[in-house]
Input
Amino acid sequence: MAYYGSGTQTDPYIVDNWEDLKAVSATKGVYVRLDPDSERKVMDINETSDALGLQENLPFYANIEGNGWEIRNLCTGSFDIRTNGNSISDLHFVNLISDAFRVFWGSVFCTNCSFSILFLKRGCICVPNGGASFNYCAMNLFFVGTEASTLFYALTTLTGCDIELHGSVKGLKLLETGKMENCRITGQLQLDDAELTLGSYNNTTAYNIFSVELTGSGQVLSKYTSNSICLVNTEQIAEEITVTLLDNWVPVTTAQLQDADYLLNTLYFPCAVEA
Output
């Protein structure tokens, strides 16, 4: 199907393939809706002209309503996805491979999106140029001995995100500046005599859970205080790794994380009890 529509908010482009999505997304400020009626909501990049990986930076400036579509097997190589304050919702990047400094360069506002990413060089998702946000997004991230990295750079807001960390790193800072609230960080990660830093320096972290099985050597530190309570499962951290937590970063065990009464009435950590 060739795309149709005028690209306005009330009459967005309707798109159902990768080449058309690239074409319309190169223009700043347009609106795109991935076909909600398609039977197969998948763009497999292995079946496109970019099967061997991007050969230049990818301009992705459109406001995209994903409608549950998947972009599979995108290899950005040493290039990045360029954004410019646009919004992306309900779009899922599956098996994305990055060998660049970052995945997204520029401000981007993502809601209900998911990302499974293999990092070959640096473990960085976003370097915004004026703010970015990830709201209720899921991320499954795998690091292959990556260099010391910052996952999210300046002025990024993370709200209600579920983040899994896997592989090995030579240093990782989750968030440089910005806000992280009501997020859960899990997974299995090896530190190669490295430092893993929680929180951001302007203290806007609140009600997060860090429960990653950490092996190797190095240190985990909050480095900055949190303005509201955050939980760190220290039971999952190897003895060879030192842990330094500042105010409102509270060490807990796995059993305590599973004890709603303890969380609510002892730590005053908000949680819901599932029936």
Remarks:
- The mean pLDDT is 93.
- The CA atoms of residues 78 and 100 lie 4 Å apart.
- Helices lie at 18-25, 254-257, 260-265.
